[in-house]
Amino acid sequence: MRLxxxxxxxxxxxxxxRKLTREGYSVDSCTDxxxxxxxxxxxxxxxxxxxxxxPGKTGLGILREMRAGGNRTPVLLLTxxxxxxxxxxxxxxxxxxxxxxxxxxxxLTARIRAMTRRSAGTADNVLRSGDLFMDRAAHRVxxxxxxxxxxxxxxxxxxxxxxxxxxxxxxxxxxxHVWNYDYDGGSNVxxxxxxxxxxxxxxxFEDKKIVTVKGVGYKLV
Length: 221
Hints:
The protein is of the alpha/beta class. About 45% of the residues lie in helices and about 20% in strands. The protein has eight helices and twelve strands. Strands 2-1-3-4-5 form a five-stranded parallel beta sheet, with helices on both faces. A four-stranded antiparallel beta sheet has the order 6-7-8-9, with helices on one face. A hairpin with a 2-residue loop joins β6 and β7. The chain is elongated. It starts with a strand and ends with a strand.
């Protein structure tokens, strides 16, 4: 899952990025509203965490432009304790949620999961495909009665595949969804990760879940 963090307090920005990365998210970040617009225009994010007060362009201004242009990416606004009017304005402008500073990191991650769940039309944190189950909150994957240990990137790739069952995902799509702008690898890296993921998910099972579409990419069946 790929997120954008827009927060002009550099220390807080770095803390959020570091902790979300440890949670297994792919994270881009910036501290300026105008730079945020460039990120949003060039990348499809699963969610955006954005401060209301930003240099260059405010979070509310960015949000209004997004919604006016048809961009429905889930947005969680960060607000100061007393800014009730800003919170109301943010929700009216199309924000999916807001969080008051200072906040507990566990609440931030819970709210991110909730808003991305709603966006995907799922009621809980569990993804299912036959006997394959993923609990996104617990970072737990099982197939049948077997628990499967995955690396953070393997988990993200499988999550993206399970969110798009039957849809062929190209290597470029997988790369842009699972890695951030710091990624400088090639499509062969995707192949390596999928190879290892497939060994864990399909290795001893007759029913294969991850299928290669030659010359295009991969899909979950």
